[in-house]
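Protein record
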Amino acid sequence: MHRQTVSACVCIAAVLLGACAKSDQPAAVDTAAKTIAAPAVPNVVLVRARDFAFDAPDAIPAGMTTFRLLNDGQALHHVQIVRLDSGKTMADLEKAMKAMTSPGTPPRWAVWAGGPNGIDPQGEGNATLDMPAGNYALLCFVDFPDHIPHFVKGMVKPLTVTPSTAPSAPAPKADVVVTLNDYSFTVSAPVAAGKHTFEVRNAAAQTHELFIVQLAPGKTAADFKAWVGKMKGPPPGRAIGGTAGAATGMPVYFTADITPGIYLLMCFIPDAKDGKPHLEHGMFQEVKVN
């Protein structure tokens, strides 16, 4: 073989080897195409409670929503969310509430949907729930200390939930489930000190709430019951929230940082039959947290 031919073959071989080496390299990855969309998170709605009014948006988008309650007042407040079905309005709700013969039997089109429960002055609470599009009302039914519900004093706020094309966030992941029954609470597991996400689910025929009080050091459940009977002087504990009244099968979630102590779970919603608060029917439970 001539020297020129050998040189040409060597050059061709080098070119072919270079091409093979390039073909053995992995193809560049299009990182943009592989990007995974972050999961949707609940909408956050700030509600500030005053004596006696709510500062809150007039309208919010539909979907999983966290209501964050800040109590700027001097009295205990909560946010009871009521969904108005069948095209009803706030005027219809106010008229129906005046005409109710029993406080425990609202009209069928007024659906108790949950919300952040009672928080002491300067405190903060929260509740997360699914909010389908429609008309709603925010109310405070707390009647401490003069037995006059705060909504009568002006704590009523209409809320419109508008349709949304964005994907709704999934429900929060709860590590403790509290089931509401007629008339008791079932807690899925012992509660240890620390931050927890609670799922509160009403399995009963009637509407129920979960209202939580942490007793002051040295105070007992009997002390609290005695205080409820008179409502005079400072309460023997602090209100840390929970979930406002929710109809059967409607899950509501909340998070709380639980410290060691004695906690009371209770429901103040009036009974549909006799109008007495459900705690008088036995919906009152003591929980110890170490």
Q: What stands out?
A: Confidence is low (pLDDT under 50) at residues 2-24. The first helix runs from residue 3 to 24. The chain is about 15% helix and 40% strand.
